[in-house]
Amino acid sequence: xxxxxxxxxxxxxxxxxxxxxxxxxxxxxxxxxxxxxxxxxxxxxxxxxxxxxxxxxxxxxxxxxxxxxxxxxxxxxxxxxxxxxxxxxxxxxxxxxxxxxxxxxxxxxxxxxxxxxxxxxxxxxxxx
Length: 128
What we know:
Layout: H1 22-53, H2 55-65, H3 68-95, H4 102-127
Helix pairs in contact: 1-2, 1-3, 1-4, 3-4
């Protein structure tokens, strides 16, 4: 009888114990930031629609955007945008054939995280 499963495969996959490479983390964060932007776009379009509907709607949106929660959400959306932008530029650079090796991928991932962190801190200072 032939075995259907390779015996070298792990029996129990505990996701908390699996160590992913840095390239996997940057890829997962790129996808997560895209989802955050997609959902955030709906919220921002609603606010835009409300602000353009009437003067009262504009005043309500303006008042809402001055609250600390709204500033935090704005910072979060801008952070997702900046990370997604930097990671997307990395993908475009890799599409040109630069940094496709394992070492280049790791270096690119480290650069994405470093550049994004600096930009996110700067936009946090700007929002607050």
